[in-house]
Queue: 4 jobs
Job 1
Amino acid sequence: MVSAQPAIEQIWDWLKEVADPEVPVLSVVDLGIVRDVQWIAGARQLVITITPTYCGCPAMDAITADMRSMLAKHGIERVEIRQQLSPAWTTDWISGEAKARLLDFGIAPPANRAVDVTEIVPAVVACPRCRSRRTEVLSRFGSTACKALYRCLDCLEPFDVFKQH
Amino acid sequence: MSAGSDNILFEYLLRLGDNCLILSQRLSEWCGHGPVLEEDIALTNVALDLLGQARLWLSYAGEVEGRGRGEDDLAFLRDAREFRNVLLVEQSNADYAFTTARQFYFDAWHSLALSELMRSADVRVAEIAEKAAKEVTYHLQRSSEWVIRLGDGTEESRHRMQTAVDALWSYTGELFEMDEMDRSARERGLGPDWSALRERWMQYVARTFAEATLEIPQGTWMQRGGRHGVHSERLGYILAEMQFLQRAYPGAKW
């Protein structure tokens, strides 16, 4: 018996259900971690190319395990996950729609232009609760590698900011 | 295949990877001891980025060496004389000014170094550098801000910051040293002439110190040796802690 190989589009849809373990409002596809999905012709083996957000992000192992179990649920067992470093991951790959979901979740989304390694620009970040632009940095690093900690000077709430990267 | 040329790449990668690994381990010592919670988190996040970068350099080094050693073998089973990090990164955390000064001197060099390595003729080196450069830009922003904040702060913080930048100054020369191996690597297009980065580094340091109201140290005698495996006794203590588990329980996994 030969069952049909699921279409690549179908696999992307399944991967869209794999949430980032630390920012569950975004999927691994929203984040731009999944770069490519291919069937190896004739081998019935799937190759997924991913890129790490930060070099030391401890969530990467959990993410690959979650992707494997999601695919296993749909009967795909032979999966090779390849890591690619270049082009380096950037928050520019997060769609406008996904950024809106981050904001609703209470995390200020990253600014639209990725950080330029040749210049140092302090970005103005709006408060995700009251939208005030009067905010200040509490710490350049927050609860995970991809976030910083800010405070709103109007509503006084501290909040996470997804770092522009 | 020329064994000699592979050895150059292997050693080159160890130098890059060991800087990240040892500084990461040093910064990790602050975990749970930061002066405020936010800084505790920041220091350990910088440590985490550097550890990730160390893994990329050292796993590549292991592949290049071709003797079956992986990143863990290189991190946990080499002795002090086999480590190739600069002496700067193994210096003690001491007080917060020392930790900040060490980070600032290193970040300012690291950011320049990576922007050059992004153009390496070795594709893998260029890719790792491209990835790491973004993280290090952020590290440099943070450490520069702290140099300014502490330097241009209270009398006490300024005094401590000046003491720290003076004390660590003699460890900055090694970052720009060119030896036979660096020259061969440069000829192969692996990486830059380190000595040529010194002027830009100095300009950045001078600009930051001016804003921080700190004086630029004047000493010209420089410490050296780390890149050739000749370390201060401090590295032994770092390795004792970092390597203990794998030495006492070889092959332990969890």
Job 2
Amino acid sequence: MRRSIGVLLLAAAVWAGSAWADESWDFAGSVDLQSRWFTQDARWVGQEDRVGQFSIAVSAEARWRSADGRRRASFIPYLRWDDTDDERSLFDLREAHVAWEGSGWEFLAGSNVVFWGVTESVHLVDIINQTDAVADIDGEDKFGQPMLNLTLQRDWGLLGIFVMPYFRERSFAGPDGRFRTPLPVDTDRAWFESSAEENNVDLALRYSHYFGDVDLGVSLFSGTSREPRLQPDATGTALLPHYDRIDQLGVDLQVTRDAWLWKLETILRNGYADSFAAAVGGFEYTFYQVRETTADVGVLLEYQYDGRAATEPATIADNDLFAGARLALNDSQDTAILAGFALDLETGETLFNVEAERRLGNDYVIELRARFFTGAGPGELTWAVARDDYLQLQLSRYF
Amino acid sequence: MKIKTIAALSLLIALAASAGERALAETAEETGYAIAARSDRTDLGFGDSTVELRMILRNAAGQESERALSIATLEKENEDVGDKSLVLFATPRDIEGTALLSYAKILEPDDQWLYLPALKRVKRISSANKSGPFVGSEFAFEDFTATELNKFDYRFLLTEACGDLQCDVVERLPRYENSGYTKQIAWVDHRDYQIRKVEFYDRRGDLLKVLSLDDYRQYGNGVWRAHRLTMNNVQTNKETDLVYSDYQFGVGLTEDDFVKGRLSRLR
């Protein structure tokens, strides 16, 4: 942590030192009021049995750019408070960085979030940022990652080099919270394969470009796995996260032709007992202006494969089919609904998911989510959370 | 070399001489194309530009909502390709930072990438959706991008008064795939050669939308820009105004400013 604070102080000093009048500042932010309504009693001892769970999240954004456009800075603190699960209350610096840009290059220092990949149902290739897993089970909420990042833009594509001096641990539900393992995860007693623990320096490289209607990304990562194995402690009262060192090669590919998007992500990971491969591939097809309205309907189908052994960090996306439909009304309030399911072809475990959102006025967005689990028998992976079916209603105010 | 130059010169002279009797010698298609080409040429050589844009959406009951965005454009290298453009949204606040990068083509589908700031994700998107509403407005994406001369076949209809000016009325038929229109009718004035009004006809051949282009101003580099566009949907009575401000030309944008790798670094 000390090292990342050092990077941040350096960033703040450069930022403050160069801020004067003809340069531009931009301030923004959001407040999310979220309620979750569980339809069944909790399964595990210690979990709060309240029907409703409430949280509030505040994000503030300050951005600066120099008059010549060559230097920029970003500062985005994020704070969340939850009334039920203490582990869901947290503070994060999503972004706190400065960047210098030259002709065909950019150098960035500080905390940042980056996204790699093309698929919708699972994000295999995306590895730079740790997942804020307790925020949402879809894995799309991320923690800021301290880094030095050099980006080179050439005719032949974009090359990104990442040096990451500090590791961010994954968030897990506390003993009180829903979406918990049978034994709660004790994040205060994490174990690292690297003797430097969270100060291990992780490295990554990514090349990305497009060739006609093909978009390609190739990435290499060497460092501490963002996914921990969960191992019981000596007394058998808690699970401890074990973070191994891994090397990973990732390839992501999208072919865009007419209304078809063909997508593939694949990884090869080494570092646990055995190396393994995982892949997700499928398509997204959109019917535009259905029945002569302004609405679009997209259909999504993806197959998920993962070859990892049972001793490695568990994944539900090992032999699963994801199917979904997305309705976008294309109205002035950007009303959209996404509905889908992921079916485990081996065990029959199924997750149903509906997400609907609409802007209210100019500054508010209302969002409804429903998630239901079926088909899990005792001992199967989603059995632990099978009684955590919920409806979520969220109102966000943007500034 | 010399012979070629002389040949080219004499051809030019011949063309110039024939221009006077064009109306007699040309077909309606040739006249229509010539009017469109003359209008299109007034836009050549701007190099690159940036502009701020306010989009006002009005429903049939008169309720308004607004978007603010900026557009950067890099002029095409030649007539076989289209311009490159980058649209960046400032409001509504929940989509602030959303960006759309487009490489316009003439008859093939454009290349487009969308940047979603909440996930920091760059997504290549299908450009088959030319005729759908652009961010909920009465403008379709093709209404912005289909300004390239060779995207249409033309036919001259007649000359008539348009406000204080005289206009040539030209029918244009989309040659590119996935257009939402069977035809468009454009009014091009005789004084500045600018488009003053366009009617859009839907797939059934019925009048769908009427676009008025107003507040034309000529810039130092000679190019004209309309600063107020109003698109009226005559079938739904919904309307969208586009109000342009702060046009800047020759700001030194390069190909490197129009690559997908830049989308996450715009703010």
Job 3
Amino acid sequence: MPPAILCENLVKTFPGRPPVEAVKGLNLTVNIGECFGLLGPNGAGKTTTLEILEGLQDPTSGRVEILGMNWAGQAHIIRQRIGISLQETRLADKLTVREVVTMFRSFYPNGIEADEAIARVSLEEKARSYVVKLSGGQKQRLAVACAIVGDPDLLFLDEPTTGLDPQSRRQLWDIIKSFRDAGKTVMLTTHYMDEAERLCDRVAVVDKGQVIALGTPNELIARLGGQNIIEFSLDGDPALDADRFSKLPSVISARVQTGQFGLTVGEPHLALPALMNELQRAGQSLATLNTRHATLEDVFVNLTGRQLRDAD
Amino acid sequence: MFRYSPLFQLMMARLREFYREPAAVFWVYCFPLLMAMALGIAFRDRPIERITVDIREDAGSSEAITKLKATLAADERLEVKGVTGDEWRKRLRSGKTSLAIVATDKGIELWDEPNRPESVLARHAVEAVVYKQVSKEPAVDEHHLDETGSRYIDFLLPGLLGMNLMGGGLWGVGYVLADMRVRKLLKRFLATPMKRRDFLLSIMFSRMLFTVPEVCALLLFGYVMFDVKNAGSVFSLLTLIILGAASFSGLGLLVASRAKTIETVSGLMNLVMLPMYIVSGVFFSSERFPEAVQPIIQALPLTAMNDALRGVMLEGKTLMEVRGEIFVLAGWGFVPFIIALKIFRWR
């Protein structure tokens, strides 16, 4: 059985002065039945990649196969088997939820009933409401309903929970999980670490148009070498070199950014006393100290030296 | 049966979005009526104004004066008033009368005030009446062309109809498409197996559906308020209207085929429509423009539309007799539609 998505040496260059290389040789394989996340900062090329996979943009070069088919010859069949939700689509304001879903259903030769799709995203109570009256989370769920009403095998979601409140995000996660649990494939982009960790079977960390890390969230975190992070800052903000902490026991790597030190450590109970001694020797006192489990955020910081959120 | 027909669903979506927006309904249906009403009243035919003429009764032979008075009074343009003494001079000076007739031994004197047009008019009228008395050759038989069909409102209504068909076609198609593109709805549709043909047809068909009540309202309004009738056949008129709606929606499709913002599409619309409002004979005949530019004016779709509508409504022409205009209109619908399909930007 072919993979759900296969993408080799994908390149997309937008003409201009200078030309913008949005995607620079990206390779991906997404297996059937997995929830796959493209993780990266804004401008990393996530949306461009997704839109090429969705057949909405043509790649400058590279090979793309969706469910074993290619866009050049089998676009119409692919479209019948995928469902998508764009980053922002303003559906008609003055149509009701049911009317919008019914309209989308009419585009597909096969699919589920419009009311069934509405029920799957728990919008039954809003079925007769105008789209303009929906909250942000409800609109996003409507977008997902439109994406699944054609009973797709593969679902593309571009930043499905961006800008939503925590409760709406959890609701969407449940919807996406139940879709995946039915054996279907999901490909989503996000710049939320927690979303990727909770939802995705595998993630590809994308930066500057390339995949810089690929694996399950746990694998990627384990690849840091240490599962824990010690963060601290010092009184008076002295210009200390981060390197002097990297030799401490159990410390795998150390970095400093705007006065905030971060140590990736394997065993905090070994690293912490050593850190205290080191600070005492240097005559420094702690302003803040914090230890926590490593997240995908740390993976990104470790790989790029930049924070995910302010990397542009 | 229609439940999951894409063409039906797309058309229903357009119709629902339209009638659920009361402001849009007002502008599309009521505004043209208000405009027709305002213009119809402004340019309605005034009753013929009568010219006051004074005649001095206490000079000359009273028999001759009585006869002259009766002759002049028989002319419906003139209002004859008998005065005595020098009263006529005061009245002429103050504009209360336009002309004074004073009989003398030699005949009659006509006193006018050359700076006032109505005074000159009165003089000519009186002279004509007097002249007709004297000379019976050649025999003059007067007729007045005052039938329905020659009034300004009769000329205006087909023009407004054409203007509406153009505005409706361009805005109704062009604006809607640009708006859908801005909202990324076109892109979202593109990602589904929806057939592009179904989509474009739904836009054009729903446009034609909106046109029916719009046109009927205007025609009914013209008939009830101003007694504007259709001299030709209803079939011809209907055919022209449908052809016009299709033609201008093709043009609207072209105008909106690339525009990425509402501002761009509005600008393009105005660029296309404004010159035609002026030169294509909506409010006054396009023949008033110089001969040199006539070939261009005659090739414009709105000129063809207006000429064909007036031909049918005012002169009772058949479709065969306006086939030239029909050909121009069909061309303006078909060619832009084909170009638009080729260059249409979906995202």
Job 4
Amino acid sequence: MTDFSIQFEIRPSSGVPIYRQIMDQVRAMIASSRLKPGDMLPSVRQLSSELEVNMMTVSKAYARLEVEGLIERVRGTGMRVRPQEHTGSLEDRQSELREMADALITRGQQLGLTESQIISVVRNVLKERRSWSKI
Amino acid sequence: MVENLIETKNLTKGYGRTAVLNGVNLIVPKGAVVGLMGTNGSGKTTLIKCLLGLLRIERGDATVLGCDPWNLSAAAKERLGYVPQQINLYDWMKVDHVIRYTASFYANWDYVWSSELAERWHLPLQKRVQEISPGQLQSLALVLAIGHRPELLVLDEPLASLDPIARRDVLRSLLNLSDDGSRSILFSTHISADIERIATHVAILRDGRVAYFAELDDLKEQVKRVRLRTSEVFPTNFRVPGALRTQVEGGTALLAMPNVTDSLIEELRERWQADVAVEDLNLDEIFLELNHHD
């Protein structure tokens, strides 16, 4: 886990609060299987000192991810990635994705991409993710 | 209960007839790292000096570590560390002598830590104070201010004369100091990048008052730039209640807004038949928006 923090790209002077950047990146690591269920996250102290940010910032990010159910607190050890549970019906989960798909298509059309070109972008990203998770 | 290490109510201070501070309300909660921002001449140093009893406040109240700052007890002083903007040390003393001399005033001085800091910041212990660089002087002053691990640390532009590497080092030590949440730091700066990594709260001083005080995360989450585009032309007197700043250019309007909500966006979209885009602002941009005078 010592190389964990180098996977983070924290931009303190972004308009996005640092704790949100940490949350987004942990989410992305879980989604792409760079973090797998059962993996331990670095301690708050360790991550805050490696990223050189306030400890409260890291504990805030962890606490929110815990509320979201992505990670769980293991007494005396730290934070662990939880098994991915998909709550809600397939329909619900798909409709949650719809909004983002809508935005994606709009942006694609603004860039002058055709339907099949947009779909191929999605396919390529999925393919990249699959190769990531094999590492 | 959250204990506040610093609390002021309507603090007022001027020089002669010029009012510098005109009703400052500020709190520094326990464990908070508060970045005090303000343009040059906004009264940051005056406020800090009032809080330390170096200047006498004219009206209003101030409590620092439970004391009236003008009559800080010896016990309160043991819990307090301060680095002024203008550092005055005995020029003829050697660096290690200054450290030992200062340490002798404190029953709770941590010699191991002060030596460690001196080494980490490459302080030339055998040189005289008059021979060291401005950056080294600033680092030395910081060692002197934090060697007794104060509960409250007050820093007036602590990073001003440090190079980028020394800056990061000092910021790292400040993070270490605030680590266990029992210590608080108030530091003034006009450089927002210094605040963004370590501050939990931001207080923005403007026109002699604290114009804005919030947790840094909340500030970034709440203050947004809203861009409206419509096929019509916005009236020149276009205003949205609560906007910090409004700029209109034909069919485009730019707002800087605290408390941007979904319902507000929806309302603007319907009312003006406009495309509404919400942009995040970083601290620099927020600072500029809050200091913008129409």
